[in-house]
Design a protein that fits this description.
single chain, four-stranded mixed sheet, 17 helices
């Protein structure tokens, strides 16, 4: 899986670089050759357009349009044993991964001059796959980040750290993005989203035996990471982190609730936002991130209504562990 996922990342970079270059180098030729080959194969397999054989035309569309369109597929589709879900998007991802890996392998088999795109891709791949070097380095590559987290003493320090984390994507508590305004398609809007949990929210929101077991295994995993970082009380700290995530998950929308666009659409002025969340200056957070706006849309209103309960002076130590 690591090779496949990396292949996508490397390929994305390769496509971008070659599209920006007018030089027909070896990398671009390889990409074009494989693309032509795959396009031809797809045309032969009819992998495009509407798959009529996956419909159920015995169902009247005016009675049950869903099964009319998907009935054939529903009767024959089997979820692979290594997947939790399956559908056309997953199939597309699988094919994309296969094509990406094929292109990557072609690039790895060639000899490139230093400084070329192909050589850079090869070096990046080799660096990623050098497990001996990675294991020898241990936590050295993140020591600076750990020092920054350890230096947090109060809410101001925490906010400054989270502002800096915008550039690296290391802020798990809140983040912003730009999308079309859900109620005005002629304009874009700034959205403030909820937390990024280490474990999917469903595991915390739906209490059953299977989820309880998964949470227990997740706790062991968190404890193992803390042990690598040198924590002496790794198990106890891991439990606190899991409990913290569970409390966060209870304030965010379930998958079913998230289907209601109105619940994800909560516009606020920055002045209103300051009254809603007092322990974190979110307006300043956005400004420091380069976002100049006096209006945001909260996709997780309940979460932000409770944010001061999570981010406060009494929770500094816990948040540092969580980061």
């Amino acid at each position: 899986m690591k090779i496949t996922s990396l292949g996508i990342s490397l390929l994305a970079g390769a496509y971008f670089l070659t599209s920006c270059s007018t030089q027909k180098n070896a990398t671009e030729q390889k990409v074009m050759e494989v693309k032509k080959e795959e396009n031809h194969a797809h045309a032969q397999q009819h992998d495009h357009g509407i798959a009529l054989d996956l419909m159920d035309t015995s169902v009247r569309p005016q009675d049950d349009f869903y099964n009319y369109v998907n009935g054939g597929w529903m009767k024959t589709a089997v979820i692979p044993s290594d997947k939790s879900t399956w559908g056309s998007f997953q199939e597309l991802r699988e094919k994309t991964d296969e094509n990406s890996l094929k292109i990557l392998k072609n690039i790895l088999s060639e000899n490139y001059q230093k400084g070329t795109e192909g050589q850079q891709i090869q070096d990046l791949y080799a660096t990623y796959m050098d497990m001996d070097k990675r294991n020898a380095d241990g936590i050295k590559p993140i020591e600076k980040d750990l020092e920054e987290i350890n230096s947090i003493r109060n809410l101001k320090d925490l906010q400054n750290y989270l502002i800096g984390a915008v550039r690296t994507g290391d802020n798990p508590l809140y983040g912003w993005s730009v999308y079309t305004d859900l109620k005005n398609s002629k304009m874009n809007a700034i959205y403030l989203g909820g937390p990024r949990l280490g474990l999917g929210k469903d595991y915390y929101q739906k209490e059953n035996e299977a989820n309880t077991k998964t949470i227990a295994e997740y706790k062991k995993y968190v404890a193992s990471l803390l042990q690598i970082l040198g924590y002496k009380n790794a198990d106890a700290t891991a439990q606190k982190i899991v409990d913290f995530e569970k409390s966060l998950a209870k304030t965010i929308l379930t998958n079913e609730e998230g289907r209601d666009a109105n619940k994800r659409y909560n516009p606020k002025t920055t002045a209103e936002l300051s009254k809603l969340v007092k322990n974190v200056n979110l307006a300043n957070y956005l400004k420091e991130a380069g976002v100049n706006t006096d209006r945001v849309i909260l996709s997780e209103l309940k979460y932000y209504e409770n944010l001061d309960k999570f981010i406060n002076s009494n929770n500094i130590a816990l948040i540092k562990d969580y980061l």
